[in-house]
């Protein structure tokens, strides 16, 4: 084919006069074209609607009018479908590149000298059909911008689900920042709210439901977050319609206890109005659930989990007209955050942890505590061995216990985090009797036991001292205990995104809270970083 993807009339003659090229040149071209040359640039994850970001300055992908015969036809449904019958191969490839991005895990593994077998150089988020290419709906503005730039005519057929109307009213008050977030999201049918911990994202979601008044599916990934959503929706929404009915297995009609339905752990009270669902349960029941394709709005809380295959498959099948993603940290350690923007679109409103700190007027202090422990060693050391050396060091643990005791004496409520269950249990034993109340939060407990612990935590009186000791995974998204004002990171944490979440647990408003402290024990940074890289291996 020629440079315009038109086949040569005489194929054999064209081949005869085509000069052969070396393998070295092929490799060079592949490396170069992977980013921004003849094949067009890959998506770089920089989609953002905020004024300070200008993603159009970095993109060199330009559509050509001669690659289209007539009008580009788009269908907006569960995905954005582009009809291919009147498009030339070059434009089709450019659209595919728009929905693809470089796999940072591939290049990271390659740089470290490990095998890249099973790792794709490029992650593709498009699907090929007989007459269509399907790309994530969050790319709609990007695609239309390219078409307008090339003066290419297009038409959009909207096949999204409008959902059922809701007779629901808002009965709360929004803070100015929350109102700004709602207003920013309402201007668009899709987008991301990036707001720090304690911003009140569930309240924003409830306000959106009250304004849009369409049947809504809220997707979460933990029962803690699910229960939080149900509580906030019950608190801020009032209904002007009867409770939904359902049929028992014997055919009898009964009335639900709430307008809010839930789907998790075998429990299904969804009525197609406002339903909060554990995404793992949705993926299991999708083939039989009658409401999945009928919601007018879908909200995914903690949408930075969308690169997970399960999450991706679920959101691809929901054709709701309104699609919003909420996240405190739209970043991922594996570099797959472009998927977040592909599926939910640009960040429509951002409120960072720094903004939150300035708004509160609370001083944030970081206290590095250096110890005599050094992990430098002549021999190769595995990362888990390095962690084990840290948590078993007697002097180090003595210093941790002493610092926590001092914090309690000063009237603080510390959250003590460890990556090791055994280490957390050890600290719990060492700190017995230091405070009036102390709780150990770890996995392996039944829902009833977890509920009982939460109840006891709520009943702690203000004049009682308190220590929370927890496994890091337990204090993830959705954990809410406003009284906390000190954080002790007792083991190394290499993921800064998670550390940001943990620190966010201190940012909730509480009467009398004047400042918060974060105590972290840094080790020889170069050694820890080198050890982590050396011991990394994709399994």
Q: What brief labels describe this structure?
A:
539 residues, alpha/beta, Rossmann fold, 3 domains, 8-stranded mixed beta sheet, 6-stranded parallel beta sheet, 18 helices, 25 strands, 33% helix, disordered C terminus
Description:
- The protein is an alpha/beta fold and 539 residues long.
- The protein folds into three domains: 11-157, no CATH class; 168-351, Rossmann fold (3-Layer(aba) Sandwich); 360-535, 3-Layer(aba) Sandwich (Rossmann fold), CATH 3.40.50.300.
- The chain has 18 helices and 25 strands.
- Strands 15-14-16-10-17-18-9-19 form an eight-stranded mixed sheet, with helices on both faces. A six-stranded parallel sheet has the order 20-25-24-21-23-22, with helices on one face. A five-stranded mixed sheet has the order 5-6-2-1-7, with helices on one face.
- Helix 6 (176-186) crosses helix 7 (201-212), helix 7 (201-212) crosses helix 8 and helix 9 (279-285) crosses helix 10.
- The two termini are 41 Å apart.
- The model is unreliable at 35-39, 51-59 and 524-539 (pLDDT under 50).
- It comes from Dubosiella muris.
- Keywords: ATP-binding, Helicase, Hydrolase, Nucleotide-binding.
- This is DEAD/DEAH box helicase.
Radius of gyration: 27 Å
Helix content: 25-40%
- At CATH level 3, the topology of the largest domain is Rossmann fold
CATH architecture of the largest domain: 3-Layer(aba) Sandwich
In terms of structural class, how would the helical and strand content be classed? alpha/beta
